[in-house]
Amino acid sequence: MNSERTCSGKPRLVVMGGGTGTHMLLRGLCRYGDRYDIVAIVSMADSGGSTGRLRDEFGQLPVGDVRNALTALAMTEDTRGQLLRDLFLYRFSKGEGLSGHNFGNLFLTALTDILGSEAAAIAATGHLLRIAGTVVPVTTSSVHLEATYDDGVVVRGEAQIDNPPPARHQNRIRTLTLSGPAPAYTEALTAIRGAALIVISPGDLYTSLIPVVLPEGIAAALGATVAPVVAVGNLMSRPGQTVGMNAGDHVREWSRYAGRLPDVLLVHEGEIPEILLAPYVAEREHPILLQGVPAGVRVVTTDLLWRPTPVELTLPQKHLVRHDSDKVAAALLSLNLLSEDGRLLY
User: Fold this and answer.
1) The whole model's pTM is what?
2) pLDDT digits (tens, 9 = 90+) for 33-62
3) Are 273 and 239 in contact (CB under 8 A)?
4) 27 with 56, same domain?
């Protein structure tokens, strides 16, 4: 059974998600752009920080996850490429009205105004950065996330769901919906239908991973694809989202919205150094244990952890438990789920 071919003749590798987990994965995969047609389908639910301010002021779609994906796939083999990537990642630390804004977010907002659509701005920015692939929004509808918790409280907005007050860190989300109709972007559906391999990146379950399968048509496309679907397991819990959950809980919750189980769960194997865990434990967070994985999901374990240098250990440690982009990319492509010419092997 063959997957659809791209005009380049390369098998299509589709990454779905949002946030820093998707950035990490794409950064590792970009070096394989000569072998695969990489397409990133990103969540469009962000509502916090620079992105949220621009969304409120300009009435455009959120650009944070798009910018993260574009810079991850940016070619940096020369000084010009690295400088452009650094520029798009630059965040202003001062200036009235500018402090806190990211240059890449401002650039995408301005370009949307000039070109007339977010999709055109994303494509033009990808050309400028010479990205090793394509970035597409999962929807072009302006919607917000709405979460209903186990105590009946309803919270609206990605930023509010992602950063609950400490008193609500142990509460669990029972349902996640969009605030209005959101048809999937046509190019996102086309990418899924033509995929040779689909990867669900690591990331916050309710603010990055589930939002990318909520738009109308995405679950149906995932259910109909013949491509293997691989989920990369999270390392740590998230307050107000996944405290108390194990790997199986994550898989089942994602599948409840996606309409299918992943074929493969790729997870980290090995101890996480205590020095890295300490800040998380202090906030009652925990590693995601490999337990309760549904039958039919193939589990693959290997070392996926980023190992900080002694100098890096002196930096603020709250976000030091994370995946190594090169390890994850290499592990994914060593699963032997597809051949070089795109034929399914799984």
Assistant:
1) 0.91
2) 999 999 999 999 887 666 667 766 776 777
3) no
4) no
